[in-house]
Automatic annotation (TrEMBL):
Peptidase S8/S53 domain residues: 258-503
Residue segments, region Disordered: 35-110
GO CC field: vacuole
Protein name listed in UniProt: Peptidase S8/S53 domain-containing protein
Highest taxon, organism lineage: Eukaryota
Length: 573
């Protein structure tokens, strides 16, 4: 398909080709955006592209338009409304896509939904958006679309008064390049990021290639407070029974745990020169523009230490890779976090492709969060599908974790925080999106300031790296392929298989103050003993190949979603 540069008029009509697919109110929006002098040529353009010269995704407009209004409450974007309602947490499967199976497979309305942090308007980054494409969009279609949007945006800002708020949002940026970045996570999630006027966003939402649009927003670390304390967390995850004076400072573990595993710490960076990492920490990438390759906050270094440091780590032989997505103040943008996930995924896949010597797999930790973000949830889900074992913090607002991202990402392991006395930490989020709990109050680990610095911090930020470390721990100790406990005939254990085992192997019903519908599971490492029971969990079903397992998992998701929808309509759920 040859794509040629066109005028704004033909560009606009191409983007809204096949107007018979667009409901009446959306056609009115299209007419507002298409220049009046170009409307005469719209029918000709429509006839030209109806014949197949331009790819159009067809769908039943009336049905999808009705569903989009009912399920997603899509609204028209204007300056009087800070955003859509998808912050409400009405996501039946907890995957962040609004209504689907966790991979972004959901019925698309004729006009793409606009998601925004309406519950947290202070987190919105004005005029900055994340645009996500539908699956299987061709590269040439993406290139043509982005070129067209760049041209349209430049014409749009030329019509704005010089004192328009848009110019405050883009101060210091190149107005000729409104698209500032793009992303592609293992071909499962593609899109771009940029600064756009309201009219251009309305126009983008009409393009049949676009799945949804999300206003970019800030995210923050999930650290709660700082005080002096003792390193009890490692001891707790290696004992079934409650800790006592004889066990509170004893960590029982396999001294080979972590070997061959790469742990990506997507955070504020890592003090890679810290002595406790023993040379196993390296710098991966700095995502925020004009930032330094160092941890100026300490949060990321603390999390990395809980995962893999010599004295404070769960998996003491794992390799740590710093992926800096937050600045020194502990804050950053949702789109930068998404780019960090993209980097970790690409690095993992490169290690797999290159058959890196001794490589046993990758884990990742994200101890950060913000309001509900379908883009970030789907990015995490795509990374898990690519093979990364992902742990994320549940959040510190003492609310339903399903209202936040990435805690609501379906395929990650979402971690709440527990205390030394086996209570749910009073700040920890809860709900059905939480998978397990781990120590999160007064956790001692590595820090910044010197190459031997330590600090004691609290939060679900401190709980999640216990689980990322535990994923690294088990991943490195998985049975050989000829073992009777092998989890698959081809390849290593999948994230879905390991997640299932970790939850099943945890200590049940020992925590106090666990709200209704919240799993009462405290993670456990096996106390350095034989792990036959761990690897034997659901062994018969796991003996199929990884691909079959993934297919069955997807079929199960689809059936679950379908039956759940039926039961809800019958008022049975």
């Amino acid at each position: 398909m040859k794509l040629e540069k066109t005028s704004l008029v033909s560009l606009a009509t191409i983007s809204v080709a096949s107007s018979f697919l667009i409901p009446a109110d959306e056609r009115m929006l299209r007419d507002k955006l298409v220049p009046q002098h170009g409307k005469a040529g719209a029918d000709a353009e429509h006839a030209k592209h109806k014949g197949g010269q331009h790819s159009v995704v067809k769908h039943n407009s009336a049905k999808h338009h009705k569903q989009s209004r009912k399920q997603m409450r899509v609204h028209k974007h204007d300056d009087s409304d800070s955003g859509s309602d998808s912050d409400s947490g009405s996501d039946s499967d907890g995957d962040g896509d609004g209504d689907g199976d966790g991979d972004g497979n959901y019925e698309s309305p004729a006009i793409a939904p606009l998601y925004s942090q309406s519950l947290h308007p202070q987190n919105i980054i004005p005029h900055r958006y994340i645009i996500t494409f539908k699956k299987d969009v061709a590269p040439e279609e993406i290139d043509f679309h982005q070129q067209s949007i760049n041209e349209l945006q430049q014409q749009s800002i030329a019509q704005l008064p010089h004192d328009h708020p848009y110019f405050n949002s883009v101060e210091g940026l190149d107005l000729q390049q409104p698209i500032i970045d793009s992303f592609n996570i293992n071909s499962l999630l593609q899109g771009y990021i940029g600064y756009f006027t309201d009219d251009v966003i309305d126009f983008i939402r009409l393009n049949p290639l676009v799945q949804f649009v999300e206003q970019d927003s800030t995210v923050n670390i999930n650290e709660f407070d700082t005080q002096n304390g003792a390193p009890w967390g490692l001891a707790r995850i290696s004992h079934r029974e409650r800790l006592n004076l004889g066990s509170f400072n004893k960590y029982l573990f396999d001294d080979k745990a972590g070997e061959g595993v790469t742990a990506y710490v997507i955070d504020t960076g890592v003090n890679v020169e810290h002595n406790d990492f023993e040379g196993r920490a390296s710098w991966g990438k700095t995502i925020p523009n004009n930032d330094e390759d160092l941890d100026g906050n300490g949060h990321g270094t603390h999390c990395a230490g809980t995962i893999a440091s010599k004295h404070y780590g769960v998996a003491k032989n794992a390799n740590v890779v710093a992926v800096k997505v937050l600045r020194s103040n502990g804050s950053g943008s949702m789109s930068d976090v998404l780019k960090g996930v993209e980097y970790a995924t690409a690095s993992h896949l490169a290690d797999v492709k290159n058959k890196k010597s001794g490589f046993k797999g990758s884990t990742a930790n994200m101890s950060l969060g913000g309001g509900k973000s379908p883009s970030l949830d789907l990015a995490v889900n795509a990374a898990v599908k690519a093979g990364i074992h992902f742990a994320v913090a549940a959040g510190n607002e003492n609310q339903d974790a399903c209202n936040t991202s990435p805690a609501s990402a379906k395929y990650a392991i979402t971690v709440g925080a527990s205390t030394l006395s086996d209570d749910r930490a009073y700040f920890s989020n809860w709900g059905k999106c939480v998978d397990v709990f781990a120590p999160g109050l007064n956790i001692l680990s590595t820090y910044i300031g010197s190459d031997d610095a330590t600090a004691t911090l609290s939060g679900t930020s401190m709980a999640s790296p216990h689980v990322a470390g535990l994923l690294s721990y088990f991943l490195s100790l998985q049975p050989e392929q000829d073992s009777e406990f092998a989890t698959s005939r081809k390849g290593g254990i999948t994230p879905a298989q390991l997640k299932k085992r970790l939850i099943s192997y945890g200590t049940k019903d020992i925590l106090l103050d666990i709200p209704e519908l919240t799993p009462n599971v405290l993670v456990f490492n096996g106390a350095g003993q034989d792990l036959s029971d761990f690897w034997n969990i659901s062994k018969p079903a796991d003996l199929e190949s990884n691909e079959v397992y993934k297919n069955l998992d997807l079929v199960g998701d689809v059936l679950y979603d379908q039956f759940t929808g039926i039961f809800k309509k019958m008022n049975l759920l």
